[in-house]
Amino acid sequence: MDRYNRHIILSEIGQKGQDKLSKAKVLVVGAGGLGCPVLQYLAAAGVGTIGIIDFDVVEKSNLQRQILFGTSSLGRNKATEAKRKLDDLNDSIKIIAYPEKLTFQNAIQLFNQYDVIVDGTDNFETRYLINDACIITNKKLVFGAIYKFQGQVSVFNYNNGPSYRCAFPNKPKKNAIANCSEVGVLGVLPGIIGTMQANEVLKIILGIGDVLSGKLLCYDALSYQTTILNIKKSENEIQKVLLNKVDFNKQELNNSCKVEDFESSIKEFVILDNVQFIDVRESHEQPKVEGITVTNMPLNSFLEHLDLINSEKKKAVFCESGIRCKMAVFILNKHNIHNCYSIKEGASEINSYIKELQNKGSNER
Amino acid sequence: MLVTIKYFGMLAELTNCNEETIEFSGSYISELLEVLFLKYSNLKDKPFQVAQNNELVPIKTKLINQEIVLLPPFSGG
Q: B76–A168: do the CB atoms touch at under 8 Å?
């Protein structure tokens, strides 16, 4: 066990502690500024199972702080790309990528499979969702959040400790506070805060030190001023979440950077004129779609081809299995290109449907 | 009495200072906030919590300390 030698020779960790790490299961929500350093340190430390959930794709403006990614990552999903980098960093652990959005519908089932949840998201909607799901599933939550040069770290729901709602009972209204994509952030700040989060995860798993439960650490990178504020547990806030448990999965996310999730069928489109069909498969992928005009915008270089988009038309985006096209619609929405639909059928199904239509057409003649 | 108020995050931008000391004669944190809302009209719309003696407290708490922190939630990640 050369890899973990510097852990094992610490009397506080030892082989016993290292075994605890390798048995631990940690889910990191968001592979962004906070998620990247958290993931890097947890993978390097030998946390046995690491889940990464993120629906977003890597953009150039992320590279200033999201240190798992490089130029070759642009346009790729953050969860799968993070897994690719981490598989190389540590091939003796299990890393699971979920290239999807955390929702009220999938959170409970997902959280149940892990011991510790790490919040590395960038919006209040998801933060409150994570907090409530942790209360319901009784999971420890390692929280981190940043603004410009300042950060906050805490551990919630730890051994009956307070939750995020005990510190901040009222969810801020939409747009009350801008997020990182709208305001600047010092690149190294999420590195510092994310590393503190990783530290808390390791302490929780190893059972060493004082966990930041019931405390909110506030850090200022410009002055190095660190303030630790005590948080009182509010049974009332926690009970409110538990009382709402049965209806939890009926709630919907109300994100400020909302994604239009328009899944549709090819049958809705081929008879229409005002449609641009977009193929996001790579150029070598077969079969090519015939019988309709298609714009080729492979997902791996998608951002470089945004100028091919016809803003006047409806966009019908397809791929092989209906997954990559969803990602493409997400990117288009993020770039303020709307009226986009992901086609659930793959290229071969589209071909047979068009053929069927053409045959019908010639039979009727 | 003199009360020092520390502003974290975007609240420091709104008030244009990291901290300030003001003369205050009321007895509750909520009353202190009313004074600050008069001074900074935009402050009322911002979400924040108040800490006294390094502890987050409800605004109806009696002011016992001469140092108060106004702390907004951060969403960034």
A: no
Handedness of CA A251, A254, A259, A263 (dihedral sign): positive
Mean pLDDT value of segment B60-69? 94
| Contact predicate A321/A46, CB 8 Å | no
Cα separation, A92 vs A79, whole angstroms: 19
pLDDT bucket at B32, cuts 50 / 70 / 90: very high
Is residue B41 predicted with pLDDT exceeding 90? yes
Q: How many CB atoms lie within 10 A of CB B9?
A: 26
Q: What residues of A are in contact with residue B56 (Cβ under 8 Å)?
A: 167, 216, 229-232
> CA-CA distance, A184 to A149, in Å (whole number)?
9
* ipTM surpasses cut 0.90: yes
Q: How many structural domains are present in chain A?
A: 2
A118 and A84 within one domain: yes
> What is the separation of C-alpha A95 from the centre of its chain, rounded to a whole number of angstroms?
14
Q: Which of B8, B45, B47 sits opposite A218 (nearest CB)?
A: B8
Residue A175 touches chain B, beta carbons under 8 Å: no
Q: Which of A214, A181, A120 is nearest to A335 (CA)?
A: A181
DSSP 8-state symbol, A194: H
Partner-chain contact A145 B55, CB within 8 Å: no
DSSP for residue B77: -
Structural domain span for residue A345: 258-364
- Residue A248 in any domain: the answer is no
Question: Residue A279: enclosing H or E segment and its boundaries?
Answer: strand A275-279
List the one residue out of A216, A351, A329, A345 whose CA is nearest residue A262. A329
Residue A35's CB is within 10 A of a number of other CB atoms, namely 30
The reply to whether A221 falls in a domain is: yes
Q: Measure the CA–CA gap between A96 and A208, rounded to whole angstroms.
A: 27
Whether the model clears a pTM of 0.95, i.e. scores above it, the answer is no
Decide if A170 touches B, using CB distance below 8 A.
Answer: yes
| Residues of chain B neighbouring A180 (CB-CB closer than 8 A) | 76-77
